[in-house]
Amino acid sequence: MNKNSIFLFQIFLVTMQGLIYLFSEKGDVSFLIVNFSALSVILSFLLSWKCRQSTYMRGFGFSIIVFFVLMSWIISFQIPLEIIYGNRVLLEPSLYLVYDFTVINKLVAFSSLMLNFFLLGHTYSYSKPIMLDSSDCKIKIKTYPLLILIFISFFVFFLTFNNDYSHGEVEINSISVASYGFLVKFSAIYLAFKVFNYSRVSGRNSLNFLYNLNFYYLILVAISCFVFLNSHNRIYAIMILSPIIFSYFLFYKKKINVVFVILCFLALNIVGLLFKVYGLADIYKQGLYISDGYVFTKFSFPFTAELAGSFYSGNILFSLWENGFSLYGTTFLVGLFRALPGLMGFLNLSQSTYDSAVIATLYSGVNYGVGTTAIVDLLVNFGPILSLMIFTYIGYFFGRIEIKAYSNNKSIYSYVVFITITILILFYPRASLNDLVGMVLFNLIFCKLYISFFSLRFK
């Protein structure tokens, strides 16, 4: 099957899914709608991946596309699928998994339509040739000035970090959060510079990657991860570790089967769930057993239950949108503001005016943050038509930037954007994409200014 045939078949799937969404009605969860919606995304992904395999990206299975689609699929479909196959326990209001079951059909159909459009954009990203940019090929970027900024950010974080911080119980110091945010952004840029500087070196291997990273930088990363894991928080540790892992595959050009990547993701998801339940100290004492007191045990497959639980916030927001609620794009306007450090603090906007996760939490009535989803967050900001267009572009953008990063294109900005995306790639499906906007803009602006001062040009 050639690229044109794949693209046409995906358009057929999108058309069918669009009709299902248009004709979905409120009521009990539909066996047909849920099954077709879930299956159409799987088929579209397989087609898109087949198209990818016909390019020089063949074999590079450790992909931002895989993680984004896999996580989005679990969030969108696991709970509805379990319900239609008999697990009606998940509908109990006390479990906080389903807010309004009458809109599940339309929510599932729309989520599938969004993911199909995302994959359509991803497939299209392989249809255009890469224009090689040699403008950066004769420069080498100094990394020590950036390391100094990383160390300063770390020490401010470490000195202001409140020792009684515990995830979900005691809030972290605001200065610590801000300095850690800079640490994560600077770390991604540092990794991009390292990969770029050594992109011309032949005979690279996995040991080269670690050897070329500063020893004290690695110690800094290890300490910051331990601090957060010990406080029962995985999020901040993943934010700094993910770019390192993706940078390794980018540096080494390591090829890995996509099935193996998915299995590894599921295994790590199991570890992540056990960590959430038992914490760092007791995670290995309990084995794979989870006591009946946890909501995860109500699922047929409990080890992806935490991820699937984000369906609840999406269900709340979709129900609100059905009743006329809209944020009119303010969430993403805030994302643009975040590209300029300190601006949000100066504006002092209430999160309940722009943050769909806060709004979903307020409507849920629970005493913890229920989060949001990338799909429904776009919907309540821009409506269905514009959301579908944006998701198509995001699929194209993710695919295109990954192609550029793995190609012989020597533009430093391709590396910076790609590695910046990986900071939150494991959170975007269950969060707002407005953070992507702010992070990419900040890192690009900073990178442009930094290179003008700290790059060496050679012949």
Q: Counting H and I runs of at least 4 residues, what is the number of helices?
A: 18
Number of strands: 2
Task: Indicate the radius of gyration in whole angstroms.
Answer: 22 Å
User: How many distinct domains?
Assistant: 2
What is the helix/strand order? HHHHEHHHHHHHHHHHHHHE
Q: What is the overall pLDDT average?
A: 87
Largest sheet: 2 strands, antiparallel
Structural class: mainly alpha
Low-confidence stretches: none
Globally, the shape reads: globular
Major beta sheet, strand line-up: 1-2
Q: Tell me roughly what share of residues is in helical segments.
A: 55-70%
Q: What's the quaternary structure here?
A: single chain
Report the portion of residues in β strands: under 5%
- Determine the N-to-C terminus distance: 45 Å
Layout of secondary structure:
Blueprint: H1 3-23, H2 31-53, H3 64-84, H4 104-124, E1 139-141, H5 144-160, H6 174-197, H7 206-212, H8 215-230, H9 235-252, H10 258-282, H11 305-308, H12 311-322, H13 330-337, H14 343-347, H15 356-364, H16 374-406, H17 412-422, H18 434-454, E2 455-457
Helix pairs in contact: 1-2, 1-4, 2-3, 2-4, 3-4, 4-16, 5-6, 6-9, 6-17, 8-9, 9-17, 12-15, 12-16, 13-18, 16-17, 17-18
